[in-house]
């Protein structure tokens, strides 16, 4: 890999395709399909109230995502956040099922996909 003055990470969001997909400025040399990333903005600098020492800048989390497509110099990250799965209990509705001893059945519905929280061009991305 050729040396560069650009640090590998954090990367930058260079395009917001939609609320579920962003593109970062790192490609095949730095990321792989399936890799997870944290997408975040940088907030204000915070200071220790006792020592007045800088504690750094606050990371404002936009969400997490997985690399779904890699090109030579860029990669697409898709939000991988979901609501919690929901369990549903199904009770037998007919007398025959109740007589035969068929009890309640439980099914699990997958969670709903969640978008990034207001991701913007210029946000940051780092592996998690």
Describe the protein in words.
By secondary structure, the protein is mainly β. It is built from 1 helix and 8 strands, in the order ββββββαββ. A 6-stranded antiparallel β-barrel has the order 1-2-5-4-3-8. It has a two-stranded antiparallel sheet with strand order 6-7.
Brief characterization of the structure:
The chain has one helix spanning about 95-100; strands at about 10-20, 20-25, 35-45, 55-70, 75-80, 85-90, 105-110, 125. The protein is mostly beta strands and about 130 residues long.
Please tag this protein with its features.
single chain, 128 residues, mainly beta, two-stranded antiparallel sheet
How would you summarize the topology of this molecule?
Layout: E1 11-18, E2 21-24, E3 36-47, E4 54-70, E5 75-79, E6 86-90, H1 95-99, E7 105-109, E8 124-127
Antiparallel strand pairs: 1-2, 1-8, 2-5, 3-4, 3-8, 4-5, 6-7
Q: Let me know the average pLDDT.
A: 89
Separate helix tally: 1
Question: pLDDT below 50 for ≥5 consecutive residues: which ranges?
Answer: none
Assembly form of the protein: single chain
Task: Give, in spatial order, the strands making up the sheet with the most strands.
Answer: 1-2-5-4-3-8
Beta-strand percent range: over 45%
How many strands?
8
> Structural class, judged by helices and strands?
mainly beta
The radius of gyration is: 22 Å
Which range best describes the helical content: under 10%, 10-25%, 25-40%, 40-55%, 55-70% or over 70%?
under 10%
Distance between the termini: 22 Å
In this structure, how is the largest beta sheet organized?
A: 6 strands, antiparallel, barrel
Secondary-structure element order, N to C: EEEEEEHEE
The best one-word shape is elongated
């Amino acid at each position: 890999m050729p040396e560069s003055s650009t640090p590998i990470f954090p990367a930058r969001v260079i395009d917001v395709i939609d609320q579920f997909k962003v593109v970062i400025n790192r490609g095949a040399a730095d990321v792989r399909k399936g890799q997870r990333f944290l997408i975040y903005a940088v907030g204000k600098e915070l200071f220790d109230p006792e020592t007045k020492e800088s504690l750094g800048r606050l990371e404002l989390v936009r969400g997490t995502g997985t690399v779904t497509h890699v090109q030579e110099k860029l990669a697409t990250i898709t939000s991988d956040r979901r609501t919690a799965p929901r369990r549903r209990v199904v009770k037998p509705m007919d007398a025959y099922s109740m007589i035969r001893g068929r009890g309640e059945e439980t099914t699990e519905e997958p969670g709903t996909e969640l978008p990034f929280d207001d991701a913007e061009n210029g946000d940051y991305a780092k592996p998690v």
